[in-house]
Amino acid sequence: MLYDAFPNIKFIISSSGSIALEEEAIKNLSGRYFLINVKPLNFREFLELRGKNSFLEKPELWENEIKKELSHYIKRSFPEIINWEDEILIRDYLRTTIIDKIVKQDLPEKFKNVNRDLLLSLIEIFYTEPGMFLDYDGMSKKLRISKKTLIRNILYLEFSYLIRRVRNFRPNILSSSKKLQRVYANWWGLVYCYYNNPDKIMENLVGSYIDAKYYWRENSKEIDFLNIKDKTIVPFEVKNKEIVFRNELKNIEYFINKYKIKKGIIIYNGDEDKINQIRLCPLWKFLLEY
Question: Most exposed among 23, 123, 160, 265, judged by the fewest C-beta atoms under 10 Å?
């Protein structure tokens, strides 16, 4: 009533309980609401809150300092913990205020017969191996549950923004979701509650940052992520190393030629470079630009 009677008044309704909030908005505010998904801090926001605005003006002059801040940022992308030093405390905070709250409170309030132990087991499986291929048959046998139950609980985790499924790209989009799905944490910071492998963390970070929905795999060739906007495709490869050799470009070169793509990007820890249509971009610079 207020929204319709006073068009100049704007209401902001916020909640960490995204499931209930979205349901109520759809049910009671149809045609009257605009959903904004507030994401964790990006790297620029993190530096601003840390009082490092000078780094943003001429980042090339502060490269070493920015890299140090990056290692801090990866584990602390939520605003309330940016200055925390105790990593054990950070893990406990993320686990209790985000993961446990969703699994033990939000989901049981919304859905009947929620198996909390199963959800926590799935989270541990996915977070300890970000990017794993989703094998419904094998996983349901290992966990001794039906495939239907497994799929339902994976949907719970995806709906509550705890995981993201990244599908194998095909020109026919309808075929991309049928098999070879990969699973990542929706936000890389949550992985630190369970896992500390820098290779997969870096890959998960880039996937979260670009809101990845697709990767590409064909025979033995694979591209980590595809960013698709307005029918423009940009392939991304993530390599946790300072030197990328020429033969490591063959997959992304093949993809560029096959689909007539204008450019590709490799995110790594080395210096800015370019080889033909492929940009080699340091992680810190990519996070500041994207």
Answer: 23
